[in-house]
Please model this.
Amino acid sequence: VPTLGGIAIFAGFSIPVMLFTHTNDFMIRPYLMAGAMIIFFIGVKDDILHLSPWKKLYGQLIAALIIILLADLRFTNMHGFLEFQKLPYLASVLITLFAIIVIINAFNLIDGIDGLAAGMGIVASVFFGLWFYEVGQMELALMACSLVGTLIAFLRYNFFYSKYKIFMGDTGSLLLGFIVATFTIQFNELNITDNATFL
Model:
């Protein structure tokens, strides 16, 4: 069974994002795609030649730091969780880095069962996509929709077919975790009261 389904997931997600998110307000797109490409090539190499866990971790750290330091996308406020509110810069960077690495590897670990990682990715992306749409973040909503459509197409050949199967491999699971981690940070940082009322 081929384990390079992540290539199709990357293409199905990145092409709509590159074509339809060109607004000046959406400044994180180049950094997101740069991080996604690093994750993608790490996954491809691991699926073909096998990488050590430490090398995969180094690549994940580089991709995460691109998002955190260059795109300035990080947790800046805990909104009262564990009685924390606004975070100092260093704590913000470290917590965000930890969260991204955990989410990436969580999706990687659950990829052993057909349809599980993709199914979880669909559930998360539908939730985030609806929320982004409600608060007027159309570029993020489009990203979530692109991921949902890609994963649904992937599930057809992963979960529903017994003869012609394909696995997403590390290429897909690492990329999926990276994108969902980005959605999670955006979800935390967007102030819903300034944009829409969501019930």
